[in-house]
Amino acid sequence: LAVAGTSLLCAADPAPKLPMEYKASIAVLVAGSVADVASSWGRYELNPLARSADGKFSPARAIPLKAGIVAGTLLLQRWAMRDHPKAARVFAKMNTIMGAGSFAMAARNWRNR
User: Fold this and answer.
1) What is the H or E stretch that residue 105 is in?
2) pTM of this prediction?
3) Handedness of CA 71, 75, 78, 84 (dihedral sign)
4) What is the C-alpha separation between 51 and 58, in angstroms, rounded?
5) What is the DSSP-derived secondary structure letter of residue 3?
6) What is the rounded distance in angstroms from the CA atom of residue 89 to the CA atom of residue 21?
7) Helix ranges (DSSP H) in 13-87
8) Furthest CA-CA distance within the chain
9) Do residues 10 and 78 make contact, with C-beta atoms less than 8 angstroms apart?
């Protein structure tokens, strides 16, 4: 739903000129989430929302959860930037920090294999 909402919002209202810093931060956010999912695959998962009954990482639960978080974050940012385009710089920093956190979790997961 979040992805569909983002698509509808983008189609209904042409995007303001977004700084390259913001566009790059989206790539960091998405890549960090993908790396975190890849590093968790087949391992025991601490997050109860992302694990199956046997305690292992559940792609069927975790991937929609992660995608929803990323899409929801970007949807809210897009909505806020309609009235406050200068907020893109703050959102760029936020996305980069969130992506870096996901990369850190992925690095920890790979290191502990």
Assistant:
1) helix 88-111
2) 0.81
3) negative
4) 5
5) H
6) 7
7) 20-40, 59-83
8) 47
9) yes
- Tens digit of each residue's pLDDT (9 = 90 or more) over 20-48: 999 999 999 999 999 999 999 988 888 88
For residue range 48-103, list pLDDT tens digits in order: 888 888 889 889 999 999 999 999 999 999 999 999 999 999 999 999 999 999 99
Give the amino acid at 40: S
What are the tokens at 106? 């992925």
C-alpha pair distances (Å), 102 with each of 11, 16, 30, 31, 106 = 29, 28, 9, 9, 6
Tokens of 37: 């999912």
List the beta bridge partners of residue 52: none
Alpha-carbon torsion angle 72, 78, 82, 84, nearest 10: 100
